[in-house]
Amino acid sequence: MKKILILSANPKNSSKSRLDEEVREIQGALKRAKNREQFEIVTEWAVRIDDLRRALLDHQPTIVHCAGNRSGYDGLVLENQTGEAQLVSSQSLARLFQSFQEKIECVVLNACYSEAQAEAIYQHINCVIGMNQAIGDEAAIAFAVGFYDALGAGYSYNHCYDIGCASVDLEGIPESTTPVLKFRPQPSQEENKQENQANQESITQPHNSITQTFGNDSIGFGSIGSAGNINIQR
Prior knowledge:
This protein is an alpha/beta fold. It has 7 helices and 10 strands. It is globular and about 65 Å long. Residues 209-214 and 218-234 have low confidence and may be disordered.
């Protein structure tokens, strides 16, 4: 099962975004999925810095979706104890997500100017989506709906991104180039299986001895063995 953690922050000293509608549309997209039992959605609202760390620890998500008002080169915008904006630096985000790289497969930063944070997180997570400029509410929602419709249909993350961008186009919104994908392809399960099988066969292959015969005596000149390399996958 893939657990999707949706983090929402809309500080009271920032412009309002339709975050509740975005979350509702994501939930609706996955409820319509033919394999909807394979997904679990957890939503955290008015996320503060401590909430971010605790949510990752408590829920151990496969996908993290950040629905926010605005990011930027200075950091991702969350909320402080009084509900006002507080920045989390790109470096701090990268360090945090590094601790969850064995579990998290994809991070979606559906907030304005979040490409810098996406690049930092991409050091440790194989699929990260950010925005290269400001993105309007309608475009952000259209991208999210297209992305999760495709995810529910069983598509890979990079194809979900393509369909999300196409969804923005279909709505007639001129912002389909705003989402930016940072994607590191991973071996398929079949490729991993074949590689592991080849390694196992190489390890268990019997040694071959080289001998030279003089009359009735055989003199051994050592053994040549096949050494296999074991690749440990994250």
